[in-house]
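Lecture 7 notes: from sequence to structure.
We start with the chain below.
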Amino acid sequence: MTTQNKQSYRFSEAPIWDLQREYYEQKGMKAWNNDQVPQYITSNPMIAAAYAEMIFGFLQDRANKGHLAEPVVIVELGAGAGRFAYHLLHELRQLLDYAGIPLPPFRYVMTDLVMDNVLGWKKHPALQSFIAEGLLDFAQFDAVQATDLLLVVSGTTISQGDLQQPIIVIANYFFDVIPQELIYVGDGHIHEADVYVEYPEDNDSLSPAEMLSQLKLRYEYRQAPEYEQENYPYRDIISVYQEQLEDSHILFPVAGLTCMERLNALSREGFLLITADKGDHLLDHWKFAEPPQLVLHGCFSLTANYHALQYVFEQQGALTLFPEQNYNNINVGCIVHTDQPMSYTNTRLAYRRNIEQFGPDEFFSVKEWIEHQIGSMGLPQILSFWRLGGYDAEFFIQSTTRISSLLAEANDDELQDLVRGIELMWSSFYVMEQRYDLALDSGLLLFEMSEYEQSKRFLEISVGQDPDEVVSTVFYCLAICCFELELEEEALGFLRKLVELEPDHEEALALLSQYEEQR
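Predicted structure tokens for the same chain:
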């Protein structure tokens, strides 16, 4: 990118947004590998289950209103690695099967700006059953300008007014990463905060992430009377900011609001928005706000202005639900923008149970604390928290060393629950490139428990995933599993592979010699 060393931009048109787009286009699905871009907090089984409960409640409310025939379309904006969608669909399908009551059908549509990500989801093994059942489709979607949804699997297009059920929109870590306006309230007037960007030297050789980390931003202000005109679309909320704020910088989500307006236009019945972000819905949190700082993690993020979304949609008659308590890590909101939104009782109750009383933010706060206590926890406590988190793979990986140390004192019930938990965890595991091997850790722990059949299955999965990186211990454990299961030929095969890796492995050589002498 060859450019002048310094240049002034309107904040929503600054080059940071182009660099953001370039980062995701270049990285594709690898942007989320090993949490380069944070995704755990909005992609774990617990938050997915909370959303599934709210969607299930919404389907119940539509059924109670007599709308059973037409499908409900669920659109996830910026679906990232796909892990959240997988966990949500897994849980929602279980809820539907368990309830066994008449509900409208649904179709989940994962969207992203980057087409390579869309095609990557389409090929992901974990998503194939949902595709085959007609529950899942995909679409490329540009939040800044797209008006239609062209579905990749079915080949159909969803256009203005096509949907006869309200559209459900899921927006996690979305409103904080799309362009926003930056205004400054001072002396009762609205000012545009222009950003001066100072570029690093020799920036042509820098990647988008390197460029973002080295840019220097400086703000200057000019009065912006266009925001104060009566015909400005969001004049009412701007008036609130003028009257109640002073010396405050406001990230104003014009792109987010217009995106929701375009999605709303697809349906004749309104929308349900469920969203999670670093976002403030209380006006007090914007008082005397400093200029925004880019939070860097490969790309960057800012704070989402949930107060603006809440105010604008409430003015249009929507019901907005946000926690009464302050959030620590992530704020989860629900906006029911339909006719008679208060009549969506099951949706509101699901929000109360799964977000308001104890939700993803509280879970993540507790998890952060527990991570430092694992070394002193007993097996009942580990199993309880693991169950609370929906048998989350990350917590299991963090706990395996401690679990291993507790096996000798564990009772039969605890061991049985551990085996069951591993099976449930694996049944809902979404494979992506990570710094851990879940099948390996599961197989080794099961080996310690003398659960040889299950251990063999997981260890063989691990070997199959990366046959060139197998450590000798795995082949030894597989050999022992096979001996215990009376699969002698398989056992000898694993021992021979082990000796190829470690010619001096005494145990393997002794076992091979023993069995060859018996022949």
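Points to note: The first strand starts at residue 6 and ends at 9. The chain is about 45% helix and 15% strand.
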